[in-house]
Amino acid sequence: MTTITPKSSxxxxxxxxxxxxNPKSKSASSIRDPPGFSASSTGKRAQVSKTQPHKxxxxxxxxxLKVKKSWEVALAPAKQLPMNAIMMxxxxxxxxxxxxxxxxxxxKNPLQALMQTxxxxxxxxxxxxKSKMWVVKAVYVLMNLVALGLGIWKVNGMGLLPTTxxxxxxxxxxxxxxxxxxxxx
Length: 185
What we know:
Blueprint: H1 12-18, H2 26-29, H3 40-43, H4 59-91, H5 97-115, H6 117-121, H7 130-158
């Protein structure tokens, strides 16, 4: 059997939840609202400000933005060079799986970028920006070649490049002496 308990037996937070708050008193209205608070935006949505519609950019402005964006793409490999150099330095010169994988990625990424140079800039190329794009593409290729140079430096440091005479001994012929010295006792 259920019994109905009087409202006074409920906890105070339940009573406050079901009763609306008291209106502001005169003393409370003298206190300013905190910075960033506006009473008009709490109860109803704020009135949408009447702004003028945004006019579309002109073709010249669009071309300028495309050239700026293409320069960002062209200089992106240069921004990766310090990080790659530090990683190559920290991986050491010994032949370990970590350093081999790092060198592999250091060669793979610039080679892929060089093969896809035109594809990287097709969305920024227009008939008006075509004359400026060859400089951007040249910088892009140059930065990727510098990244490849970093990889070659690392491979040389690991001792994998045949740069000494001893690396080519298999193709050396034995020298024939011009004279022979025989010691007799």
